[in-house]
Amino acid sequence: MGRRTRMRFVKNPPSNFYFIRRIEDPLYEASVVLTVAEFEAMRLKHYVSLTQKDSADKMGVSQPTFSRILESAHQKVTQAFVEGKNINIFGGNVNLKKPFLGYGCLSCEYEWEDPQATQDSKTTCPKCGSNDVYFLVKNPL
Ligand SMILES: [Zn+2]
Prior knowledge:
The chain is of the alpha+beta class. The protein has helices at residues 36-47, 52-59, 63-83; strands at 31-34, 86-89, 100-105, 111-113, 133-138. Strand 3 and strand 4 form a beta hairpin.
């Protein structure tokens, strides 16, 4: 005979269960922007279920800093829930540790990864066969 679950009071139901864009108001900001660090903080704490200490260690920040990042993420996600906004994730000061190394093609704008890529190597575009390719390094964000 387990304890009865107490009723939870919810002041307002979510304004939009599917969190799709409201387009009727042109001034309505449809999205909140989560930084990659905020996303990672939520992932480590609530998805991987690490402690704040372990999460902070994984991200290379102090626990107070991690706590601040997580709090900011919670505020944004809550705002998205309450106001029915999309959540976009990009930007912020993060080190993705593994830079993109490869080439880009000037003819067709295709970009491909090659961990052995160097400034001097000669290669051709695998998509269009052009020799007009350039060395490409991306340290994202
Ligand atoms: Zn190409």
